[in-house]
Amino acid sequence: MASPDARPRPGARPRNVHTLLKARLPARLFQILRQAGTTGDRQQTPVYAVGGFVRDLLLNTPTGDVDLVVEGRGIRFAKTFAQHHKARVTAHERFGTATVTFADGHRLDIATARTERYARPAALPTVTPGTIGDDLARRDFTINALAVRLNPARFGDLVDVLGGERDLRGKTIRVLHERSFIEDPTRAFRAIRFEQRLGFRLSRDTARLLREAARRRVVRRLSPSRLSDAVIHVLSERDPGAILAGLADFDLLHDIHPRLRWSPAAARLLKDAGRVLARHTRIHPDRPVQPWVVYGMAVMSTLPRPAVNAVLARLPFPRRQAHLILQAMHTRDRLLPALAQRRRVVPLETIRLLRTLPDETLIFLRAAVPSATGKRRLSALLAAAQRATPVLTGHDLRAMGLTPGPLYTRILNRLWDARLKGAVTTETGERRLVARLTRPS
């Protein structure tokens, strides 16, 4: 679908971005790319940095891990490169890919240049070795179909045969061919993600093809694992609410579950969740959470319980995260009525419940409580639970000669209850209580 003027003119010299690489990359990463090109020359193999790395370089936005493509044997290149630079290599023989990890944390994902053929819509492709042109032509959008040559004699040469740089300047998301969304429906999710993340717009043809694919319900053909991965990527974005709204515009949420809708209430909840997440990160940098799980809780809370169960059955999220989401729905149903009641005394069981909840659930609850009064009461209860935390820990119990096991949990819970009720207020009081609890009867 690229316009004819996107193709290089015969004899035209490619743009060189050596200066951008040196100016915009950390010195260590720049040096790694130079070394990769040198290794390519030793193996008489063209080596390229590709995809999102090049896109972000041209946009001057923070760059994550680097993807390299080798016109040759990618795994052989990776092993040689890793050996020369005392790095660790993890090879995936089936896919012809490898990951090189350096001691300082930098990573290179290395693949063999390849072509792809789809036997049927939504199936995983059959891949065969190819050229860098083949490799770029198999990608999702023009802005991701960019490469930079790394071999020393041509270091920094930009490879752009499909108009990617033009579309970066025009802030446009454009698929590469008519069947793009049919062959790989996950591109529907990626199109909206890039549109919202970058502040771009879909080209007219791309929007038309996406609507046509949505009408054909191609997303429903995805395997559960691929659909689950696509949803997790959406929820992992900085502003998943905007992406979910975009998916709703194309009626793609319906393919996750017929009851899933986008609404002003859902938009407010996602925004509130984002604000609470940001505050948690500022206040507790030592307690990292998974934002996608919090946003997943928020999205699921817009559904009736049977629909939540159906979505979690359809999407094979990691077991722990799926459990957290389901647990959050149960906790919300127990907690919100208690917070809405006018009585001053909150049952001890409610405060005990809050004490046991993981941070993701607490963040969700802070966002999900509908009224300002309820939010204040929840904050007060969480503060009370925090104040009741015992001074003594499992390490202290062990130092007191107690054998680790279920006894620790029982003792710490009793200490917490005593603190909450005011029966114990000092470490000395806690130690006396432990002595009474462990005294032989």
Throw out a few tags for this protein:
441 residues, alpha+beta, Beta Polymerase, domain 2, Methane Monooxygenase Hydroxylase, Chain G, domain 1, seven-stranded mixed β-sheet, two-stranded antiparallel sheet, 21 helices, globular, disordered N terminus
Give a structural overview.
This protein has 441 residues and is of the alpha+beta class. It folds into three domains: 4-170, Beta Polymerase, domain 2; 257-387, Methane Monooxygenase Hydroxylase, Chain G, domain 1, CATH 1.20.58; 394-438, no CATH class. 54% of the residues lie in helices and 10% in strands. The longest helix is centred in the last third of the chain and has 22 residues, at 319-340. The protein is globular.
CATH superfamily of the largest domain: Beta Polymerase, domain 2
Largest sheet: 7 strands, mixed
CATH class type of the largest domain: Alpha Beta
Uncertain parts = 1-11
Report the radius of gyration as a whole number of Å. Answer: 27 Å
**What is the domain tally?**
3
Number of strands: 11
Average of per-residue pLDDT values: 89
- Overall geometry comes to globular
The name CATH uses for the topology of the largest domain is Beta Polymerase, domain 2
Structural category? alpha+beta
Query: Which CATH architecture of the largest domain would you pick?
Result: 2-Layer Sandwich
